[in-house]
Structure formats: C-alpha cells, structure tokens
C-alpha cells in the first residue's frame, strides 16, 4: 500500500521549473538601464518601469496656469513661480550643501555625485564639472561640495565683481568675474553691473 501511495504522490512540488538563465540575466541587467543611460549614469537604481512613469507624469503636466499668457505676474516673482513650473521630480536623498541660510543649495542625491565622479575620473581621467552662478563672495555651496567630493570635481564660480580667494586653486575651484546673460533676448538688461556673457560663450572659452 505504501508503494502504491508513493506512486500517486504529486511530483510538481519537487520539480523546479526550467529557467532560461541567459534571458533572466539579460532582463535583470537591462531593468535599470533606461534611467542610467538617460541620466548619464546619475541614477542607477530606478527601474525602467518607474522611470517611464516619471517621464509620462512630466510629459502630461501643465506647466502654466495661464497658458495663453504665461508671462502674467512676471513682475511679481512670488506670484509667477506659484503659477508656473512646480517641481515634479523628487530625490530621496536630497541634501542642503553648505549649511543653512542664503548661499547653500539643495542638491539632488549628492552621494551619487561622489560615485559617478570617482568612476569618471578612473575611466575617463575627469570627474564632474560644476558651474556656480552668483556667489557674492560667499563660498558656502562650493566649500560644501569640496568637502563632499574633494578635488575630483572642477568647480567654476561666476559673479561680476571681485570675489576671488587665495585657496581656490588648491581646491580645483576657478573664479570668473562675469555673470550670465540671455542668449536669445538682446533687450534684457541685468540688474547688476559688470560683465555678462552667455552660457555658450562661457563654455567655448573654458
């Protein structure tokens, strides 16, 4: 009887399904590739599914409350920003670099900068590049980035004035005495005095 019972025991519980290791490995390898490629290696832990959801959300968002007149309230910055371009991307490990108050800035997942900068320095010989506009002689953000990243990142500071420091070269920081102006609106006049260049002009020179 025991032999007869054993013959009728189900075998599916002990049988393992056949796995296609190559296809599983390929799927696992590519499941985070979209965000990685489109963020230039910055995001390496966001799945393709979630990345596409984020893209659809951004594409469907209405940026201007007054679509026919997006410049409404442009003379009142607080009102204008309230009605235009609300942030639709959140960073899980966002940090304020440089301390509290004016000068320091919120940075999206700065720990990723450390990782990707070290990888690029090793593979390509260069780390990351930072453009900081408008320091007014306060280097809170730049000093904070240096403490976080070290000299692996090249930091350029732009401000029309005279805000250079003696220790900048040792920290791979570079001060430039000009600000940025519009590249398409020649009628725009910056409030501050001094020299102004477009981003394109700056990149070509540096």
Automatic annotation (TrEMBL):
Residues 1-30 are annotated as: Disordered. Residues 1-15 have a biased composition (Polar residues). It comes from the Eukaryota. Residues 16-30 have a biased composition (Basic and acidic residues). Residues 34-206 form the Methyltransferase domain. InterPro entries: Methyltranfer_dom (IPR025714), METTL24 (IPR026913). Pfam families: Methyltransf_22. PANTHER family: METHYLTRANSFERASE FKBM DOMAIN-CONTAINING PROTEIN-RELATED, METHYLTRANSFERASE-LIKE PROTEIN 24. This is Methyltransferase domain-containing protein.
């Amino acid at each position: 009887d025991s032999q007869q019972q054993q013959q009728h025991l189900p075998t599916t519980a002990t049988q393992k399904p056949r796995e296609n290791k190559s296809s599983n490995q390929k799927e696992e390898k590519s499941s985070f590739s979209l965000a990685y490629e489109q963020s230039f290696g910055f995001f390496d832990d966001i799945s393709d599914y979630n990345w596409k959801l984020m893209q659809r959300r951004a594409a469907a968002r209405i940026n201007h409350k007054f679509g026919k007149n997006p410049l409404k309230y442009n003379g009142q910055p607080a009102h204008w920003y309230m009605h235009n371009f609300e942030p639709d991307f959140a960073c899980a490990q966002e940090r304020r670099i440089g301390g509290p108050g004016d000068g320091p800035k919120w940075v999206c997942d700065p720990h990723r900068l450390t990782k990707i900068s070290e990888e690029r320095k090793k593979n390509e010989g260069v780390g990351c590049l930072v453009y900081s506009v408008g320091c007014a002689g306060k280097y809170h953000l730049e000093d904070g980035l240096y403490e976080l990243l070290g000299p692996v990142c090249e930091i350029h500071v732009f401000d029309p004035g005279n805000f250079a420091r003696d220790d900048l070269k040792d920290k791979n920081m570079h001060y430039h005495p000009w600000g940025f102006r519009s590249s398409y609106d020649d009628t725009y006049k910056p409030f501050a005095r001094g020299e102004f260049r477009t981003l394109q002009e700056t990149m070509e020179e540096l």
